[in-house]
Design a protein that fits this description.
Largest sheet: 6 strands, mixed
CATH superfamily of the largest domain: von Willebrand factor, type A domain
Number of strands: 21
Distance between the termini: 93 Å
Strand content: 15-25%
Oligomer: single chain
Number of domains: 3
Helix content: 25-40%
Structural class: alpha/beta
Shape: rod-shaped
Radius of gyration: 42 Å
CATH class of the largest domain: Alpha Beta
Length: 568
C-alpha cells in the first residue's frame, strides 16, 4: 500500500515537472542578452563617431571660410594656408572623443579666367570604442572635407548717396562719409587683379552735379537753362509794355514766385532791386531773381539764366497841325502850338529775353560757362530708362534723351564719378560731399544705373571681360522721403517715377543688378519709405534710426557682397 502511494506521488511529481514552463524565461533572457547588449553598444559607439564627424565638418567649414577670407584680404599668403587652417581648426574643434587623433591638411588652387579660387581642407580622425573593441574593433575611423570657393566673380558697385540738406543734422553726413570710405577700403582689398572691382559715386539731392568740365558735351540739353521763366509765357505783368529803365520791378513773389535783380541773378555781385536799372551795363534790364517755387513748385531754388532787355517802340502820331486833337483816343497827349501841334500816343516798350543776340545785349545772356554743373530729370519716360543720350551735337528729340542743365541754387559740390578703381580719388569725392537741397532719390538712382552701363554715355563703365562672371550692385542711402523733382513737390508723384525706375533696373537685360537700400530715419521722424523698401532686391532694405548705425548698415551690405560660399 505504501509502495503504491509512493509510486503515485512520484509519478504525479514527474508529470508536474515535465509540464512546468516558469524557468524558460530566465534561460531565454540569458541567451538573448549578449546580442542585445552588443547592438546597443555598437549604436552608442557609432553615435559618438557620428557626433565627432559632424563637429569636425562644422569646424572645417568655418576654417575654410576664414582662411579664404584671410587670403582674399591679403592678411596671409598662400604659403601660410595650411598652418592657418590647422590653427583655426584646432580652436574650433572641441569634440573630446576625437580631437586628439584629428589631423587636417589644406591645399590652395588659384583661380583663372574660367575657374574659381579654392581652399580645400581634408581631415580625418577616430573615436575609441567602448563596446565594439570586445568584437575586435578598438576604434572607428572617419574623414571629411570642405571647400571654400571665391574669386571668379567681378564686382561693380554704384554708391548712390543722399546729400540733401537734412543730412547735416544729427551727424548723418559724417557717419555716411566714414562708412562709404570704409566700404571703398574693404572692396579695394578684393581687387587682386585690375578690373576685379570698380566703384562709382553718385551724390544726389534734387539734382546731380555732373561737373562743369562737361559743359560742351552733346548729352546736355540747354533748353530749360536758357528759357525764360515759364510762368511769364502766359502771365506777363500788367502794364508790361510800359515798363522801362527806372520803372518799378514788375515781378512780385506772390504773383510770379520771384522779384528783380540788378543784373543776371547768377552773376557775382547781383543784388535785389525794386526798380529797373536806368544806367550802366544793365540799364533797362529786367532780371528775375531765384524762383521761390511759390507758383511753380518744381522750380524751387532755380535761377533763370538771363534778363529781359527793353526795346523802345516809338509813339504813334494821332493828329498834327493847328487843329490837332486826341479825340477819343486814350493815353493820347498833345504838344506844341499852332502848326507845330502834335497829338500822339506815348512810346511803348517790348522786352526780349536774353536780348537780341547782338553784342549790345550780350550781357543779358549769360554763357554756358556760368553753369554750375547740375542736371535734373530727363523727359518722361527717359527718366526711368538708361537709353543712350545724344552722342553728337545738334541731335535733338522730343521728348529729349539728353539731360537738362539747371542752375540750381543748391547744386552739390560732390560730383558724379564714373566707375573707377582709383581708391584715393573715390574717397576724395566722398570727402567733397556737403549737404544741401531737397530730395529726389530717383535722379540719383538713374545715374547710379547709368554708371553700370558699359555702352552708353555719359559715364559708361569699362567693358566687361567675357571670360568672367560679373555682379552689379547699387547701394542707395537716403535720410528722407522724396520732396522735389523736375515736375513736382508731391511725394507720391515723385515716388511713382522712382517705382517705375526701380522696376526697369531690376529687369535690365544687360546685367543682373542687386539693389540695396538704406533709410536713415532718426527718431522715426518719417514713416517707413515704401518706395525704398520695394526698390531693394528682396531682403536688402534696411532702416536705421541713429547715425551711428550707418557703419553697421554698410557692413551688412559688405557681408552680402563679399560673402564666401562653402561650396561642398
Amino acid at each position: 500500500m505504501l509502495g503504491s502511494a509512493i509510486f503515485c506521488r512520484a509519478r504525479t511529481a514527474v508529470a508536474r515537472f515535465s509540464a512546468a514552463t516558469d524557468g524558460n524565461i530566465a534561460v531565454i533572457f540569458a541567451l538573448a542578452a549578449v546580442p542585445i547588449l552588443s547592438f546597443v553598444g555598437v549604436a552608442i559607439d557609432y553615435s559618438r563617431a557620428n557626433s565627432a564627424r559632424s563637429s569636425m565638418q562644422a569646424a572645417m567649414d568655418s576654417a575654410a571660410l576664414m582662411v579664404a577670407k584671410d587670403l582674399t584680404d591679403g592678411t596671409i599668403t598662400t604659403a601660410d594656408i595650411n598652418t592657418k587652417a590647422q590653427a583655426y581648426f584646432a580652436a574650433l574643434y572641441t569634440n573630446t572623443d576625437a580631437k586628439a587623433s584629428a589631423t587636417i591638411n589644406a591645399t590652395y588652387s588659384a583661380g583663372s579666367a574660367t575657374t574659381a579660387s579654392t581652399v580645400l581642407i581634408n581631415g580625418s580622425s577616430s573615436v575609441t570604442t567602448d563596446f565594439m573593441k570586445i568584437a575586435g574593433f578598438p576604434k572607428i575611423d572617419f574623414n571629411t572635407s570642405s571647400t571654400s570657393t571665391w574669386g571668379s566673380m567681378k564686382m561693380r558697385v554704384a554708391l548712390v548717396l543722399d546729400n540733401t540738406g537734412s543730412m547735416a543734422q544729427n551727424g548723418k553726413m559724417a557717419a555716411l562719409q566714414s562708412a562709404a570710405k570704409g566700404m571703398i577700403d574693404t572692396l579695394s582689398g578684393y581687387n587682386k587683379q585690375t578690373g576685379d572691382v570698380y566703384i562709382s559715386i553718385v551724390p544726389f539731392s534734387k539734382d546731380v552735379n555732373v561737373d562743369v568740365a562737361n559743359v560742351n558735351q552733346p548729352w546736355i540739353n540747354w533748353a530749360e537753362w536758357e528759357a525764360e521763366p515759364p510762368i511769364l509765357k502766359s502771365n506777363y505783368p500788367t502794364g508790361w509794355n510800359t515798363v522801362k529803365a527806372g520803372s518799378d520791378c514788375p515781378f512780385t513773389s506772390s504773383t510770379h514766385g520771384f522779384t528783380c535783380m540788378d543784373r543776371p541773378a547768377t552773376l557775382s555781385g547781383a543784388q535785389s532791386t525794386s526798380t529797373i536799372p536806368s544806367s550802366g551795363t544793365y540799364a533797362g534790364y529786367i532780371c528775375p531773381s531765384m524762383d521761390s517755387g511759390r507758383k511753380l513748385p518744381g522750380k524751387t531754388s532755380i535761377y533763370y539764366n538771363g534778363c529781359y532787355t527793353t526795346v523802345t517802340v516809338p509813339g504813334t502820331v494821332i493828329d498834327s497841325g493847328a487843329g490837332a486833337s486826341c479825340g477819343s483816343t486814350s493815353n493820347c497827349s498833345c504838344s506844341g502850338n499852332g502848326k507845330s501841334k502834335v497829338c500822339s500816343l506815348p512810346p511803348t516798350y517790348s522786352h526780349l529775353w536774353r536780348g537780341d543776340g547782338t553784342a549790345a545785349t550780350a550781357a543779358a545772356a549769360p554763357a554756358h560757362s556760368t553753369w554750375t554743373g547740375c542736371v535734373n530729370d530727363r523727359d518722361q519716360n527717359y527718366d526711368t530708362s538708361n537709353t543712350a543720350p545724344p552722342s553728337s551735337l545738334g541731335v535733338s528729340t522730343t521728348p529729349s534723351t539728353a539731360f537738362y542743365a539747371e542752375q540750381f541754387a543748391d547744386c552739390l559740390p560732390g560730383t558724379v564719378t564714373a566707375m573707377s578703381n582709383q581708391w584715393s580719388t573715390l574717397k576724395g569725392q566722398i570727402d567733397n560731399m556737403y549737404p544741401s537741397g531737397n530730395t529726389n532719390q530717383a535722379v540719383g538712382l538713374a545715374w547710379g544705373w547709368l554708371s553700370l552701363n558699359t555702352s552708353n554715355p555719359p559715364i559708361k563703365a569699362p567693358p566687361k571681360d567675357a571670360n568672367y562672371p560679373y555682379q552689379d550692385y547699387i547701394v542707395l542711402l537716403s535720410d528722407g522721403l522724396n520732396t522735389q523733382n523736375r515736375w513736382s513737390t508731391t511725394q507720391s508723384d515723385i515716388d511713382t517715377r522712382q517705382q517705375l525706375l526701380c522696376q526697369a533696373i531690376k529687369a535690365d537685360p544687360a546685367s543682373k543688378i542687386t539693389i540695396f537700400t538704406i533709410q536713415v530715419n532718426i527718431n522715426n521722424r518719417d514713416p517707413k519709405s515704401q518706395v525704398l523698401q520695394d526698390c531693394a532686391t528682396t531682403g536688402n532694405f534696411q532702416m536705421i534710426t541713429t547715425a551711428g548705425q550707418t557703419a553697421d548698415a554698410f557692413q551688412n551690405i559688405l557681408t552680402q557682397i563679399s560673402k564666401l560660399r562653402v561650396a561642398k
